[in-house]
Each structure stands twice: as C-alpha cells, then as structure tokens.
C-alpha cells in the first residue's frame, strides 16, 4: 500500500503516516496539490495530511482541497509535535549562525532564538527538507529544526531536543482516500456548506444541530474560491464573488438518524452541503 504525504521523508507527516498506516510505503510530494492528484488518479491508495495545529491553527490550503477534490476522510490522529535542533555530524552549537526550517516550526521555537541571538532564522519549505539541505550541502555553520526522525533519515545529529516553546503542541492529521465507505465505530462527521448572505442564515444552519443535541467540535469559515460549489454538491457550479464564505464544521455524531436528519435539514437552508468524511474521533 502506498500513502502520499506533503513534504520530505522524515517530516512530521511521515511520522503521522507511520502511526496511522504502519506497513504502508510513504510517497513524499513537493506540493499539497500533488498529494490530492495522486489520490484521485489512484497512483497511491491513500494520503495523510495535516489539517490543524493546536498553536498555529488550520492549514488553509488543505481545507480548500478537501472542498474541491473528490476524497473522503476515514480517520484522524493527533501527533505531539517535538522540535529538535539538528546539525551535520561534527558541528557544535557554538559554530552555528543559521537555522533553517518551515516558518511555523521557526515560530514555535522563539525561545531558542531569544537564548541564542547570534542565530538567524531562515524559512524553508519543509522541516525534514531543511535537515536534508544542511547535511547534503555540508554546511558547518547551519542547523535545522525538525522531528527526530529527520535526523535518522539523513544522518544528522541532534544538538538540542524538545526546543518547542509550548508542550501542548499537537497537529491533527487526516487519513483520506477516494472511497466513501464509513468505518465501524465512526462517531465524527466533517462537512462543508455555504449560505446565502441574508439575516439569520447562520443561525438557521446551526439550529439544525442544536435541535437534535448534536455537539460541534469545530466551526470555521474560509473564503470561497473560484467555483460556487463543489461538483459533488449536486447543484450547478458558478463563479463566486468576493466576501463569500464556506463553513467547515465537525460534528460529534456518526452516520446515525439524528445526523442524517440534521444534514437533510441543513440542505434545505444551505446553498450546498458536502460531507467530507465520517470517521472515528481520535481519543
């Protein structure tokens, strides 16, 4: 089984994929769009993508891709994010002048740069990719911030471990593929919907859940991009206008009668509704 991730081998996505699909072969992709392309084309069986971080918030591009691509969520996994300062072997901390990593990782390790003002933070496209860069290029004054797995993957040495500012640092990853099967024990449903910009529209939409005592664990709005509705909505797609939004909601119910009734009711008041996945909530 092949599973696609965005980023390099040794990244947090690689670690999450190993936790969710231990026996799968991981296929690294440079772009998030390529991950979804591979799933839709069938060149991989599944994908593991980050959807939100407990400190940095949502991965906006992945919400947009979930809306516009024909994929389905089957599981979620919260990965504890532990950052490490990784350098080529033989390089010591006092030699460092540059630190590469993904901008989010750099931002989550501010205390390192306060303690070492001589270090310049340099944004890079990927955490594990930054380790590969400093080691492959033999940089003697540079290190990278990345997972422990990246040090093993590329032969780096961990100079400092656990350098993240906040210990409550988790990223929620999703497992998705093309099938719309619902796994046993599913008790969480992710949906997207759009509303007309009229008074009370959002109140009416949320009331379909309140009337049935359905708890919502997340609600977020995103600007609507290019098409009015995804093709699977069953409604004709058209051009969106500025300041139109899509609401993404996670409800703590699976495929049961209250959930199905809520979705039918929501379909009566919304412009479109798309079910993104029905899956077991992470413990």
Notes on the protein architecture:
- The protein folds into 3 domains: 1-80 and 169-179, Periplasmic binding protein-like II (D-Maltodextrin-Binding Protein, domain 2, 3-Layer(aba) Sandwich), CATH 3.40.190; 84-161, D-Maltodextrin-Binding Protein, domain 2, CATH 3.40.190; 182-283, Alpha-Beta Plaits (2-Layer Sandwich).
- Strands 1, 2, 3, 4, 5 and 11 form a 6-stranded mixed beta sheet that branches.
- Helix 6 runs parallel beside helix 7 (148-154) and helix 8 (201-210) packs antiparallel against helix 9 (257-269).
- The longest helix has 13 residues, at 257-269.
- Residues 228-238 have low confidence and may be disordered.
- It has helices spanning 12-20, 32-41, 60-68, 103-107, 110-115, 127-136, 148-154, 201-210, 257-269, and strands at residues 2-6, 25-29, 46-53, 57-58, 72-80, 84-87, 98-101, 120-123, 142-146, 157-161, 170-177, 188-194, 216-223, 245-251, 272-279.
- It is of the alpha/beta class and 283 residues long.
- It starts with a strand and ends with a strand.
- It is built from 9 helices and 15 strands.
